[in-house]
Structures are given as C-alpha cells and as structure tokens.
Design brief:
Length: 399
C-alpha cells in the first residue's frame, strides 16, 4: 500500500509517498511560503534529482494539488494515478485526552481536533486545513490522524499531573501531554528490533535532541515519563524555547517590561533557549563553531543544554529497574558526536561508557558505547514519516 504522509505547518507542507511493503519513500518534498509571495515546491523521487518549482499558492489546497500533480507527473512523478494512494496519514500535533492512538478521520474526529486548538494554537489549525484539503481533493481516499501526543497516553497520573488546584485539570485539562511521540515510538520499536528484544520487555531512555528537544522514559515499550509537558515549552533548553524556568519569572518579566501574555509567550517560545543564552543562533552547529573560537556565551548555551539532558537521563534511570539502552535521535542527537560525548561522559557514575571511535558516526544507526558499558548507547535516526505510514496502514486495514 502507498501512503501519502502529510505534515502541514502554517505556511509550509512536508510530504512523503511511502511504499509500506518495501518501507521506502517513492517521493518526498517540501512546499514553502504557502499564501506568501515566492511560494515553491521542492520535490524529489528515488531515481531523479530534486526539482524546484516556483508558483503562486494561495492556500494549502493549492499546495496539496501541486503535490499530487508532481506525484503524477510523467517526468518527475512516482505514480500514474491518484488511485495508487491507498490512504493519507496526517501528522496532528495535539490529540488532548481524546486520542490514545491513531484514528480514522471522521467528522467527529475533526471536531475533537478543533476542540484541542486551544492546546496547540500554532499547530492544530494548519493540521486541520491539510485534512480538509485532502478530503476535498481525494474524497474516496481514507484519511488517518496520527497524533504527537498519543504515544504518551500510557504515562501514569503521578507523572502527568501538575501540583496546581485539581479543578484546573477538571475544567481545562491542564496536565502533561508530551510531544514528539511519533519519533519516540519509532526509535523504541527500532531499538527493540536491533537489540533482539520483545518490545513489551524493553526499557529505554530516548533522547530526541534538535531545535525542539524532548526525552522519554520508556518502560516495557511504553512511555512512562517525558520531558515536554502541557505544551512543547516545558522541559529541556531548546533552540528558541526556554524549557523549565521558575514560573514566577514569567510574571516578573511581564511587570518589568510591561508585556502582554502574547508578548511573553513569544519571548519564551521564539527568543529564548540557546538563542537567548548565546545571542548568536538557535542552530547548534553555529554554537559549536563559535564555542570552538572562544565565544563564552555559545559555550555556556551548549553546556547548559548538555547539563539538562544529563540530569533528565539520570532522573529517568531512577524510574527504571533496568535500562537496555540510551538512544540519541533527531538533528543534534544523530549528528553531534561532541554533544553526545559531553552527555554520556557526565553519566560515568552509572557505569555508562562511550567508545570515542564508534561515537564519530553521524546520521546512521550505530552502537556507540564501549563493550564494558553498563548500558548500551545507540544512535538511531528517527523516521516519523515511516511511523505515520505504518500507523495509517494499520488503521486502514482494521476498517
């Protein structure tokens, strides 16, 4: 079955057409600047070089129409008929408490996704737009929603409840939800395969480290705890997000700077993190280059990030009776040997040891721990699109 995986942002759309039998991408691409001047698509297939087409795109319906046109194109396409698309899998960021698994999209499901817009105002609206556009363009093709939050529904209440008046949970569902669930789920299943263990008996700590970062404690193949919370702002220092801070800082800065809720939200989400600390960039590669040249603030930003990752891994080790592996994934986790080394070397009291030669790997699966390490350390490139395709196929076959 061919699955079209769609990930809609506010003005962008990422896609892959995945053959689920071979588990490979037949085509993939990115549509940028939707509804803005200079809109374009970058499209590529397995055999052909990347094509860049610039054309006005008024909305996401136009963007998806262009995606389908490229997929069917005689020269740059991958299929001959839209009927070769068995289903569409949509990445939806927030499923709230309603969805603990991926689900076939119905009118009731769309209403529930819309209800959770207040929990993910930047992400759920474009996700809904993408769903509606695909339904209009491919009315006979099943549509499946795959939620970033669903994997974390197995967390116990002790790990997802906040110590605020309980009425706020009852009235507004304020609790930890966790994100990056599709990525954590993928690397969990892949680690079980690589280690030759039944997923139900595997314990892991999965580190999705990138511009957005989260760590999950995986107990018996299920999410037991995770660092992101009610929103993706909680947890680790990230590219532009502050991560955990004293809540009183928020009102203190608002009063001192005379800021509105929207303005403080903008600062904490888009002007903080390693960007705010360094004053240079939210890109960890830029920070590593600057730190190597003696920039103290860049070095501070990296050290603070690595310290938080180490502390979180250490705290999660206390929640597991054993740990099969610590997994690094996503942009920084997969591609920064220096970052991984700083984190793992700080865990030496747990008997975790890195092999510095194995650790030189970038962007490929590898065991990077030494033979005498108490816990294996692995790099597993994430593949959220494949995970979405797998879930979509499963849901459609259950229809």
């Amino acid at each position: 079955m061919n699955i079209l995986v769609i990930n809609c942002g506010s003005s962008s759309l990422k896609y892959q057409l995945i053959d689920t039998e071979e588990e490979c991408a037949l085509a993939k691409g990115l549509v940028e600047r939707i509804g803005i001047s200079g809109s374009r698509i970058k499209h590529e297939t397995k055999e052909k070089e990347k094509e860049v087409i610039e054309t006005p795109l008024a909305d996401h319906k136009d963007a998806i129409s262009l995606v389908i046109k490229c997929l069917l194109d005689e020269k740059i396409g991958a299929i001959k008929s839209v009927n070769e698309i068995g289903a569409v899998g949509h990445r939806v960021v927030h499923g709230g408490e309603e969805f603990s698994d991926s689900v076939l999209i119905t009118e009731e499901v769309k209403k529930a996704i819309e209800k959770n817009v207040e929990l993910a105002p930047l992400h759920n609206p474009p996700n809904i737009i993408g769903i509606n556009a695909c339904e209009e363009l491919m009315p006979n093709t099943p549509q499946v929603a795959v939620f970033d939050t669903a994997f974390h529904h197995t967390m116990p209440a002790v790990n997802y409840m906040y110590a605020i008046p309980y009425e706020y949970y009852e009235k507004y569902k304020i609790r930890k939800y966790g994100f990056h669930g599709t990525s954590h789920k993928y690397v969990t299943e892949r680690a079980a395969q690589l280690l030759g263990k039944d997923k139900e008996y595997i314990n892991l700590i999965t580190c999705h480290l990138g511009n957005g970062s989260s760590i999950s404690c995986i107990r018996h193949g299920k999410s037991w705890d995770t660092s992101m919370g009610f929103t993706p702002l909680q947890g680790l220092i990230m590219g532009t997000r502050s991560g955990d801070i004293d809540p009183a800082i928020v009102t203190f800065i608002m009063e001192k700077e005379n800021l509105s809720p929207a303005e403080i939200n903008e600062i904490l989400n888009k002007k903080s993190g390693v960007l705010g600390l360094s004053g240079i960039s939210s890109d960890f590669r830029d920070l590593e280059d600057a730190a190597a040249k003696g920039n103290e603030r860049a070095a501070l930003a990296l050290d603070a990030f690595e310290a938080q990752v180490t502390k979180t891994i250490g705290s999660y080790l206390t929640e597991l009776d054993y740990c099969d592996a610590i997994i690094f994934t996503a942009g920084v986790g997969e591609n920064s040997p220096d970052n991984r080394a700083a984190i793992i070397n700080a865990l030496s009291q747990f008997g975790v040891k890195l092999d510095r030669w194995r650790n030189k790997t970038r962007g490929r699966e590898a065991i990077i721990s030494s033979n005498d390490s108490s816990i294996k350390v692995m790099v597993i490139p994430t593949n959220e699109e494949l995970m979405i395709a797998r879930d979509t196929k499963r849901i459609v076959e259950e229809m």
